[in-house]
Amino acid sequence: MFEAGATVSNQAARSFMFENFEPHKLEEAGAENANDAAQTVHANAESPEDESAGHLTLDNIGLKIGARLGLRAAPGSAMYSSRVIGFSTPGARRARAVFITQPVISGHQPLDLARGEKVELVALTSRSVFQFACTVNAVCHEPFHYLILSEPGNIRRLRARKFVRMTTRMPAHFFDASSEERTPQLGLIRDISPFGMSLAVAEPSAKLDDRLHLSFRFNTDDTDVNIDCDAIVRHVQELDAQGINGAYGLEFEKLESSERIALKSLMAEQI
């Protein structure tokens, strides 16, 4: 949250910090936030689009090795997380198969599946979000636990809004990019997408179209990502009658492609 030796300069900022964070329990808070984020991302990608764009197949949905998958064994059941690890080569009498890691979910045992079971999957690719069905062709345990699935069928493109937001509780630091005063203030990222965020603040003082400089960090694919960028204020939520709940709606002015990909990866991990 802060570098060693940093000072929280005023009472409003100190009150905001202790109301919104637990500085001595960051790891516990992070685990809870990951579960909240998983529910939010799944809820934001559930409506099929018009299929008039053409027949969807494994070849044209952009599914690649390393892609994150959400998998569930029955409609309405919990969504587990998996990853594509390979594809078989199709033959004259052999359809293509998809190899995936054993599905897991935080706080539960890995999902045990049997040959012949039908499963539903959701994949976030570089092209869109897709839902499809597969049959478990084989359950393998050597050299590690993985599944072999049939070629995807009943593929549907899901409606994914440009500004899909993932609920989270990440700390961020910010200051007015046009001011000579560059002392970072603490904010709470309440939701985020590759295009912007909602940032709760102790005392909202910026105006519409002001520019804020943001710094925040997260971990995705076991890699620590630090983002420093400017964002434009698109909405200001003033403090309520209790003097709390001030927030900014921010649009990223410019992100490096690697930073945007990292944010997409973070969201894909929570499918």
From TrEMBL:
One of its GO terms (molecular function) is cyclic-di-GMP binding. InterPro entries: PilZ_domain, T3SS_YcgR_PilZN. Residues 64-152 form the Type III secretion system flagellar brake protein YcgR PilZN domain. Residues 161-268 form the PilZ domain. Coiled coil: none annotated. It comes from the Bacteria. Pfam families: PilZ, PilZNR. SUPFAM superfamilies: PilZ domain-like. Gene3D superfamilies: predicted glycosyltransferase like domains. This is PilZ domain-containing protein.
